[in-house]
Amino acid sequence: MKGTYAIFLLGLLVLASGCVQPSEGGERPVKTSATDGIVINEFSSDLTRYESTESIPLYLEIENVGGTTAKDVNATILGASWVDNVPTKDFGNLSPPDLTVSPPVPGDFKTWTTTLSAFTNVPQGVETKVTLTARVEYGYSNNGAVHIDVLSKDEYKRRIQKGETIPTAPTVENSAGPIHIDIDPRGLPPILDKKENISVLILLKNVGSGVPITKEGAEGNITVNLTVTGLNAKFVKCLDTEYNPSQTSVIIQTKLRRGESAKIPCTIELDKPTAHNTFTILFKTDYRYYIEQPLTLTIVGAG
User: I need a surface site. Which of 31, 43, 177, 266 has the fewest CB within 10 A?
Assistant: First the structure.
């Protein structure tokens, strides 16, 4: 009975994790992540110690576990100060997992094997540690939507008097990836008795393990495309930009570093609701992103 109970518990844990789905036969398992796009599955070498006369083989494996295609993916090995040329590898585009078919299809993965020349400038009998870093950069986008309830004042009063439910703050639907958008629930749902401007605070979050970066090396840059539909909604202002005339779609530039959140306050004009209506904010974030993984080796000076 104890063995059966242990197997049952193990099964529950596997079901609860939800991050790795089984595949048929000897195929790769389907890995998914709500907070990452490209991940580094492995960055390794054959040994942890090398003599200063030995070259150093390196192995890198990456995979797209997010919700959209990773574009222009490339890897760089940093930290090998003794080599003349920094090792780099272009992987092209990597597709995400396809969960719409049965069995599901894993996201694209790539491997790269490269060899560093020997670190010869180490005196005999001396041991020194070197830390190499695999940096992977890729272009990504996160898409999503939020449907926001709007009540007329008469409808709000009627529901209060009847003890009926008042809509709660909305939940933002995000595609899988490292940049997520949320909405500050304060002031929602709006309650209007005329055409009016409302304030919405959009929260942009870096939930991944890396940092946005431009091709020129500037960290943090994010492009956010916002569109509103329903109740004749239009953007009047976002951040410090006023839109005259008001617009249904806007493009915003902001910065977001590791583990950070950015606030995007917007003013949106809405028509008066008939009683209970909704409007929708659609968003798409475009950015370049990098992740890193270190590897520490010991180099021993040889005679």
Answer: 31
Using CA atoms in the order 47, 52, 57, 58, what is the torsion angle rounded to 10 degrees?
A: 80
* pLDDT mean over 54-58: 97
Extract the tokens encoding 133: 């870093």
* Amino acid making up residue 36: D
Tracing tokens 């995400």 back to the chain, one arrives at 96
Q: Which fold has domain 142-286?
A: Immunoglobulin-like (2.60.40)
pTM of the model: 0.84
DSSP string, the chain: -HHHHHHHHHHHHHHHH-SEE--STTPPPEE--SS-SEEEEEEE-S-SEEETTS-EEEEEEEEE-SSS-EEEEEEEEE--TTSSS--EEEEEEEPPPB-SSSS-BPPPEEEEEEEEPP---S-TT-EEEEEEEEEEEEEEEEEEEEEEEEEEHHHHHHHHHHTPPPPPPP--EE-SSSEEEEE--TT-S-EESSSEEEEEEEEEEE-SSSEEB-TTS-BSEEEEEEEEESTT-EEEEETTEEEEEEESEEEEEEE--TT-EEEEEEEEEEPPPSSEEEEEEEEEEEEEEEEEEEEEEEEE---
Tokens of 142: 């996160």
State pLDDT tens for residues 126-161.
999 999 999 999 999 999 999 999 999 999 999 999
Is the pLDDT assigned to residue 24 strictly greater than 70? no
Residue 247 CB coordination number (10 Å): 15
Quick one: fold of 17-139+290-300?
A: Immunoglobulin-like (2.60.40)
Q: Where in the chain is the domain with CATH 2.60.40.10?
A: 17-139+290-300, 142-286
